[in-house]
Specification:
The complex is a heterodimer of chains A (about 650) and B (about 280). Chain A is an alpha/beta fold. Chain A contains 26 helices and twelve strands. Among the domains of chain A are: about 160 residues, no CATH class; about 100 residues, no CATH class; about 90 residues. Chain A has a six-stranded mixed sheet, sandwiched between helices. A four-stranded antiparallel sheet of chain A has the order 2-1-4-5, with helices on one face. In chain A, strands 11-12 form a two-stranded antiparallel ribbon. The radius of gyration of chain B is 20 Å and the shape is globular. Classes of the chains: A alpha/beta (about 650), B alpha/beta (about 280).
Chain lengths: ~650, ~280
């Protein structure tokens, strides 16, 4: 018997120090035996929501339950996941192909099945069945997964998931990169899954393919999840709207004879091409003289003959984001057939009648289509729905997401004020660094070091924003200093603490800390390309001595560019290993037993990334030997640099004076 | 009209050399003939593994093992036999600079354009793709679609004779994909020659040329009309269906209309075209 998901007030933040809200008090439930689609723009939080449900993201507040069981084990100091819940779900993350851990396809299956401790016969049976379901031959079992084509690899990753026979499938963009045949396989798999009474939550942009399967729809936007009626909400997503609905909207706007409401039907919430064609043809084949009359007579939505400058679908979209609440209500108002296999999701409690009327009035200004169907809205949106996709959001909470400015502002983190990577000349920065570092090193006593700190720290104030990401490291280093001092100062026989011994350690490490502190903002203050240019301009004379200074400089740029990509990739693999291995630890720490599994694919993926980058570089003309380096721009020492250098020189002189005269 | 020719591919084949003993050499592309004229928009269709990307790279002039045949570019551009920069699927991997401005400037420097023209060209190209106010925004804060626009700006700044875009929308969400597509359309309207590689039929431009690959062979080269044409009153399969492509909804409606005896021309394969065709029918 499958259980339902219940998310209660779940908030998730980015890891690390730069706090950013990814999910904000999400209240939602997903019912077993149903397929729920998550729609929304990129970066809205769809993937985060799926990963949170799979225990791949630490939850700040709120609870996640699958039936009676909590995803995270309660009452433990060290947070642990509930293994029972993990075994009941299977997640496929974005770009889940090309991340293989083993040498053969069979071993891939075994890796996925290991947490389930199945006997051999059952395992073999499941492997064969899931291969058949995704349309792969058994012959692939002995092949190296890396030798499969991209499409085959996608199918294999789905097969690995299916072999575990999870109650719940959590899929992130499962149709990406699949061709038409692959997509219809996927849909068949999902239907079979649902028919077995199991559930799925699918994040997707591909409404053309998946909306016909969906039982419910949830819109993720700015870290909030709201629920929506199927077709209309889909249509309001402009570019993501299914073609059929766009076509219908266009036809209506053009005043064509289109069936008004979709009749109750199985499958897609839109009429089949044949039905539309039949309706259109009936009007169009009427005698040419009366053709226009016939067309206007057949127009079902009277307002749609009004001059509608643009596609109606587009207008819906533009109406939706402005007043969020209204947009939502309107979404459910447009011809969304509740009876077409789509569950209209009830918003509890419903908005007041005034508000609704106001919303309808607003919409009159923007879209005639909306007005046309506003009557429908009143008729059913108050009805308590016995079978609706239950949402336990209290009204205040619900409103607060929609008006939450934070959810919007989370898009772009702005770096400190006007200081950017092109504010300073890297050469000036390096000179400043050396000046100050030398000054700090000349200090000898604790008092001198203290004064130096008093001098340096105020200088860092304008750059404090750049130091923030390093807070954890600075703290760790400070703890380290204390530990070293304690160890250095302790004598064992007799047991005593000797301050004299600890002092030099304290001084030395404090000086290093100061020097580290000056170095930290520099990384953000120079971009790799400017550093490259600095190296080239400073050491250009070396190239006459046949030192490959330009290649070296380019290398530096690329390394800087590569590091964040590599770190992101490691995180992805850690998640993947967690998800497939059903580890119960929070994802931040990779269990040792999984290191071996991750390391090889990670190295492979690094090489692949390097290859991609090399490809891209070649595609952009980087690989071809140059006659002479061309500089589109040169670094010049500017006013800011002079100011910075001046301050640093002054500070440095002061430091020297302190060291010599104190 | 020889001088109008932009790019001419003659009997192009790519058969990668066999690495391990016992494997047989399997051609990725075989005997491709294709001429792309100035100002054209060619949509290259093909399923996974049909050889689309290889053809794109070959046309762009990449060095690759096992390539035979001829590729002629006319007129000769500033690229001097170097490959045309192409825009790839993965927006992340191809960025080198840490801001759009840096990225395009680096590209131009590496391709040895005149030093004093570089900044001007880079900035005007970035403005052309609509990134004028984001010249110095850190790359990691750009969306996927904006990154693709940076890469496209690079090609523009190089005054590349052909914009080669290899499934640039496949990793983007529909909004971003739409924005990129619209931007490239307007560049095309301003005269750019475009090779747009995709699996999505809804990205076909009205009146464009379609080339389709299957198993390394060019199996179709013609107009959208021919691509969707169902002979015998809409009962026989069109080339589109034969090749296993899911036709856009509008095209399916149009086929059904043909079955009913309503023949819409030009053949509508987008929602807009369908509405227009229905509206203009017999008027």
């Amino acid at each position: 018997m499958s259980a339902d998901w219940l998310l209660d007030g779940v908030s998730v933040y980015t890891e690390g120090n730069a706090e950013r809200k990814l999910l904000h008090e999400v209240h939602a439930s997903f019912q077993a035996g149903k397929i729920t689609l998550l729609i929304g723009k990129n970066g809205a939080g769809k993937s985060t929501l799926l990963e949170t449900m799979a225990g791949l993201r630490a939850v700040r507040d709120g609870s996640i339950r699958l039936g009676e069981d909590s995803l995270w084990q309660p009452h433990r100091r060290n947070k642990r996941l509930n293994r029972d819940v993990l075994l009941r779900l299977g997640i496929s993350m974005q770009h889940s192909e090309s991340q293989w851990f083993a040498a053969t396809v069979r071993e891939e299956f075994q890796y996925s099945l290991k947490p389930y401790a199945l006997d051999k016969a059952t395992a073999a049976q499941r492997i064969n069945r899931s291969l058949a379901n995704v349309g792969l031959e058994e012959a692939v079992l002995e092949r190296d997964p890396w030798t499969l084509s991209g499409g085959q690899q996608r199918r294999l990753s789905l097969a690995c998931l299916l072999a575990c026979e999870p109650e719940w499938l959590l899929l992130d963009e499962p149709t990406a990169g699949l061709d038409a045949a692959g997509i219809s396989r996927l849909c068949a798999v999902l239907q079979a899954h649902r028919a077995a009474g199991r559930g799925a939550v699918v994040a997707t942009h591909d409404l053309d393919a998946l909306l016909p399967l969906a039982d419910a729809l949830a819109v993720v936007s700015g870290g909030a999840v709201r629920e929506a009626a199927a077709a209309a909400a889909a249509l309001s997503h402009a570019a993501a709207a299914p073609q059929a609905l766009r076509a219908l909207a266009e036809l209506r706007a053009a005043g064509a004879a289109v069936p008004p409401e979709t009749a109750p039907r199985e499958g897609a919430p839109w009429p089949a091409p044949r039905e539309i064609a039949a309706a259109l043809a009936a009007a169009m084949l009427a005698k040419p003289a009366c053709a226009r009359a016939a067309v206007s007579a057949a127009v079902v939505q009277p307002v749609s003959t009004a001059p509608v400058p643009q596609a109606a679908g587009m207008q819906l979209a533009s109406a939706a984001p402005a007043p969020q609440d209204a947009g939502m209500q309107l979404a459910s108002a447009a011809p969304a057939p509740q009876d077409a296999g789509m569950q209209l999701v009830s918003v509890s409690p419903p908005f007041g009648a005034d508000e609704q009327a106001a919303a309808a009035d607003d919409s009159q200004m923007t879209s005639s289509v909306i007005t046309a169907s506003a009557g429908g809205l009143r008729s059913h949106s108050y009805e308590p729905q016995s079978e609706s996709w239950a949402i336990t959001t209290p009204a205040e909470g619900f409103r607060s997401h929609n008006h939450n400015p934070q959810s919007e502002s989370s898009a772009i983190p702005t770096p400190a004020g006007a200081l950017r990577s092109h504010s300073y000349d890297p050469r000036a920065l390096i000179a400043v660094y050396f000046l100050l570092a030398a000054g700090i090193f000349t200090q000898r006593t604790l008092l001198e070091t203290g004064i130096a700190a008093g001098l340096i720290l105020p200088l860092l104030v304008p750059f404090r924003a750049f130091l923030k990401p390093w807070t954890g490291m600075i703290r760790a280093y400070a703890v380290l200093i204390v530990i070293f001092c304690v160890i250095g100062g302790i004598s064992l026989s007799p047991l005593s603490f000797d301050g004299e011994k600890a002092l030099p350690i304290l001084i030395r490490f404090s000086k290093l800390l100061l020097i580290m502190l000056i170095g930290m903002p520099m990384l953000k203050l120079m971009s790799p390309m400017r550093l490259q240019r600095a190296i080239e301009q400073t050491f250009d004379w070396l190239s006459r001595l046949h030192v490959p200074i330009h290649s070296f400089a380019l290398l530096v740029t690329l390394i800087f560019r590569f590091i964040p990509l590599l770190m992101g990739e490691w995180e992805r693999f850690a998640k993947l290993a967690h998800a497939r291995g059903k580890a119960v630890t929070p994802v931040k720490s990779v269990p040792v037993r999984m290191l071996r599994a991750i390391l090889i694919p990670y190295v492979r993926s690094m090489l692949r990334m390097a290859e991609q980058m090399a490809d891209a570089l070649e595609a952009r003309g980087f690989g071809y030997t140059k006659r002479k380096p061309v500089y589109g721009f040169r670094l010049r020492v500017g006013g800011l640099d002079v100011k910075l250098l001046g301050v640093a020189a002054l500070a440095s002189v002061l430091l020297f004076l302190i060291a010599f005269f104190l | 009209m020889k001088h109008l020719e932009q790019i001419e591919v003659k009997s192009l084949s790519v058969t990668p050399p066999v690495m391990a003993a016992g494997q047989s050499a399997h051609p990725i592309l075989s005997q491709i003939d294709l001429t792309i004229h100035k100002g054209q928009w060619v949509t290259l269709l093909g399923r996974n593994g049909s050889g689309k990307s290889t053809l794109a790279k070959a046309i762009a002039g990449f060095r690759m093992p096992g390539i035979t045949g001829q590729i002629r570019r006319q007129p000769r551009s500033e690229l001097h036999g170097k490959p045309i920069p192409i825009v790839l699927q993965q927006p992340e991997a191809s960025m080198v600079g840490s801001t759009p401005w840096e990225d395009v400037v680096l590209l131009l420097e590496q391709n040895e354009l005149k030093a004093d023209s570089i900044i001007g060209r880079a900035e005007s190209a970035l403005r052309e793709v609509g990134l004028g106010d984001r010249l110095h925004q850190p790359i990691e804060t750009l969306s996927g679609g904006q990154k693709q626009l940076v890469a496209i700006a690079g090609c523009l700044a190089m005054q590349s004779p052909l914009l080669v875009l290899d499934e640039v929308t496949s990793m983007l969400d529909p909004e971003a994909a739409q924005a990129v597509l619209e931007r490239v359309r307007s560049l095309h309207a301003a005269g750019a020659t475009v090779l747009w590689i995709t699996q999505r039929l809804e990205e076909l431009p009205p009146g464009g040329r379609i080339a389709a690959l299957a198993d390394g062979r060019l199996i179709f080269d013609g107009s959208a009309e021919e691509w969707f044409d169902r002979a015998a009153g809409g009962t026989l399969e069109s080339i589109c269906e034969k090749l296993g492509f899911e036709a856009p909804y509008a095209a399916q409606v149009a086929w059904e209309l043909e079955r009913e005896g309503v023949r819409l021309r030009p053949f509508p394969f987008t929602a807009e075209l369908l509405a227009e065709a229905v509206n203009n029918y017999e008027r």
